[in-house]
Amino acid sequence: MTPLTMSSPDSTEPPLHDLLAALADRVGHCFADLRHLELAVTHRSFCAENTGVESNERLEFLGDSVLGLIVTDELYRRYPDAPEGELAKARAALVNSPTLAELAAAVQIGDALRLGRGEDASGGRAKPSILADAMEAVIGAVYLDGGLDAARTFVLPALEPHMTATEADGPGANDFKTRLQERVAALGLEPPQYEIEAEGPDHDKRFHATVHIGGEQRGHGSGTSKKQAEQAAAEAAIDRVEHELLVTTPAPREP
C-alpha cells in the first residue's frame, strides 16, 4: 500500500491526515493503518487526474459483501421465525443506495472525499450515488483494518434506526413493489409496469415514477433514486387498488 498522501503546501484545505483522522473518529474505529480509510474515500474521478492512484472501487466491492453478511446475520438472529422470502425483503429494504447515502451523510464522509476537480465543482461531495459507494468502501476499510467484529460494531449502530423500523412493521414490510406485485397477481391482473423520469443536475437529481396496471395509471411517486421513486409509486398504487377493491366488492348479504 502506498504511503499516506499529503496535501499540497499551497492548499487552503485541511491536511488529508486531519480529514481522515476526523472521519475515523466519527466512524468510531481506531485505524491501525489509516491508508485503508484513505483508499476508501478516493473516488475514480480523483484517480483520472492523478496517475498511479488507486480508486475505492475494489474496496467498495468488498464492503458491499461485508455489509450484506452483517445485515443478513442480524436479521437471521432477530427474526428466528421469519421465512427466507421475508428476510430477503427486509435486507433489500436496509441495504440500498438511499440508506447508504444517508448513513454516509451522518458520518460526513463527503468532507473527506478525494474527488476530481470537475466532480468536486459539480457537487460530488453531496451526490447520493458517490456517498453510497464511499460508505460501502469505508465498511470495507474497517473490515480490512479491524476484522468482521469491528465492521459489525460500526454498521449495526448506524443501521439501528432502520432496523427498529423494520422490527416494528415486520421484515419486508416496506418492500412495496413486491407487495403490489403479489396483490396484483392474487387479483388476476397484469403485472405492474413502471415508467421513470429524471430531472435536475447530476449532483441533485430527482426521479419520478409512475406505475401502470392493465394500461391504467395506478400510482405516482418521487425520490432521490429510481428504486426510491418506484417504491413510493408502488405504495400509492397499493392504496388505490385496495380502495377500489373495497368500493367495487359488494357487501355480503344477510342470511
User: Which series of helices and strands comes N to C?
Assistant: HHHHHHHHHHEEEH
- Number of structural units classed as domains: 2
User: How does the helix and strand content classify structurally?
Assistant: mainly alpha
> What is the assembly state of the chains in this entry?
single chain
What is the CATH topology of the largest domain? Ribonuclease iii, N-terminal Endonuclease Domain, Chain A
What fraction of residues sit in β-strands? Answer: 5-15%
Number of helices: 11
What is the name of the CATH architecture of the largest domain? Answer: Orthogonal Bundle
The first-level CATH class of the largest domain is given as: Mainly Alpha
- Runs in which pLDDT lies below 50 for 5 or more consecutive residues are 6-12, 247-253
Keywords:
single chain; 255 residues; mainly alpha; Ribonuclease iii, N-terminal Endonuclease Domain, Chain A; Double Stranded RNA Binding Domain; 3-stranded antiparallel beta sheet; 11 helices; 9% strand; disordered C terminus
Molecular structure report:
The protein is mainly alpha-helical. The protein has 2 domains: 16-169, Ribonuclease iii, N-terminal Endonuclease Domain, Chain A (Orthogonal Bundle), CATH 1.10.1520; 176-248, Double Stranded RNA Binding Domain. It is 58% helix and 9% strand. The protein contains 11 helices and 3 strands, in the order H-H-H-H-H-H-H-H-H-H-E-E-E-H. It starts with 15 loop residues before the first helix and ends in a 7-residue tail after the last helix.
